[in-house]
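Chain A, query sequence.
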Amino acid sequence: VQLQASGGGLVQAGGSLRLSCTLSGRTFSSYALAWFRQDPGKEREFVAAITYNGASTYYTDSVKGRFTISRDNAKNTVYLQMNSLKPEDTAVYYCAADLLRPKNWYEPQYDYWGQGTQVTVSS
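Chain A, predicted structure.
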């Protein structure tokens, strides 16, 4: 399984970005997907996740109402739409995948990881 993330960048506070992550090498629709983020010197933090069939989503409290995770099985891609961005959202964002469901949705114990994409929100 290979994950390729993209879409990061520099944005002003209050702005929006959409991250994308494409999975290749396996059947995309069989994988639960998630986004984590990490600041230098800090632990990797859960942001959002979506079940393999898209029926359920999970969010950390700090992004509820601002971020939306979605998936397009036809494009083998998971998205993270980030609105009303704040400087504290600045981090490297990673996509992750696990077959059917992870051991724990909120912990960075997923089997597969993409490279990070930097999101910087200026005040």
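The chain has no helices and eleven strands. The first strand starts at residue 2 and ends at 6.
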